[in-house]
Design a protein that fits this description.
- The protein is mainly alpha-helical.
- It has one domain.
- 67% of the residues lie in helices and 0% in strands.
- Helix 2 runs antiparallel to helix 3.
- The chain is elongated, with a radius of gyration of 18 Å.
- It starts with a helix and ends with a helix.
Length: 91
């Protein structure tokens, strides 16, 4: 099991480093946000002024969405990528 983890880390080091940086940024935004009802970075429906984008609107929902999307995309790429490579090699 330990060898599989080391192999995974070795082959996906680029993603792990970028994801840790992304996670750090999201944690900082979460600590500075006030969890308002708006979905950050979009302004309220009442205000059409796109200069009215505040970090204070960042909250728990945004944190989980912005953390989950890269993981889901990475998992899909890993699952489908191998099949695509095999299909291209067979043709």
């Amino acid at each position: 099991m330990e060898q599989k983890i080391k192999k995974f880390i070795k082959h996906n080091r680029w993603f792990i480093v970028l994801y840790i940086i992304w996670l750090f940024i999201q944690v900082i935004l979460l600590m500075n946000g006030e969890d308002r009802s708006n979905f950050w970075p979009f302004p309220t429906y009442k205000s059409d002024d796109f200069n009215d984008i505040s970090i204070k609107a960042y909250g728990n929902v945004e944190f989980f969405v912005y953390i989950a999307i890269p993981l889901v995309l990475f998992i899909i790429a890993k699952l489908v990528g191998k099949d695509i490579k095999d299909a291209l090699e067979n043709n």
